[in-house]
Amino acid sequence: MMSNSPAVQAARKKMQEARLAQKSSNPENYPAFYASQPAQVERARLWDAYSNSVDTLNKAREDLEVALITGENLDAAKEAYAIASLVAERTKPPAHSAQLASNLTGA
Amino acid sequence: MTATNLFEDDILDLIFTNVAAPNVGDVGGLLPSATAGSWFISLHTGAGVTDTSTLQTASEAAYTNYARQAVARSLAGWTVASGVCTNDAIIGFPNSGSGPETETTVGLGSATSGAGNLQIYSALTANLVVNTGVTPQFAISALAISVD
């Protein structure tokens, strides 16, 4: 769940203002500016890690299919596939929908 | 198909802060409304709001004193960052003079009262039972909207 602490909201507002200033003053360069923001760099890093995990998982799946056909290195292929599955699952970045909330409270 | 992070923020900027979404068609992109206006936040009961709903009155809250709450489409009203838009101030509904009534859904629409146009909605994270004397509210950044 995304935090709604004042500090987090203030940080988000600060980045929004910087982004909108860039968008207004230089819309053509704005995409490059956006990509260089720390949050975007971090998100890109997470997605790269996930992409690599999926590539590894796909390779492990292929190796397992071959092993199931030939019987060669079957145990190693099964273990590699299990590990790759776990890594892919754990490196998947959170979707927005998992972070969102509509917290109505009664005072 | 999915929107890039950049375009997610651009669309949220346009919808919630009335800032142009650049580089669509031309550098200027999708332009802001001539009048920014406000989003009018509504509460709803039961399961009466769905993707096919069009009116803000759909299963709308009806406790005594209830009224929709306006949040300006502005930088002062909303924060957009990393694909998520959140409210900058408490969104407080009037103190209830009746009850119980169970609020299940929040809506965003075009009119302060009457039929209006319901354009965005979400199930509440947890239902809220409103009894006499209860004041429903969304704390700062407790209402989060994304484009994904």
Question: What is the compact description of this entry?
Answer:
The complex is a heterodimer of chains A (107) and B (148). In chain A, 76% of the residues lie in helices and 5% in strands.
How would you describe this structure to a colleague?
The complex is a heterodimer of chains A (107) and B (148). With 107 residues, chain A is mainly α. Chain A contains 5 helices and 1 strand, in the order αααααβ. In chain A, α3 packs antiparallel against α4. Chain A starts with 5 loop residues before the first helix and ends with a strand. The mean pLDDT of chain A is 90. Chain B has a 4-stranded antiparallel beta sheet with strand order 2-1-6-7, with no helix packed on it. A 4-stranded antiparallel beta sheet of chain B has the order 3-4-8-5, with helices on one face. In chain B, 9% of the residues lie in helices and 37% in strands. Chain B is built from 1 helix and 8 strands, in the order αββββββββ. By secondary structure, chain B is mainly beta.
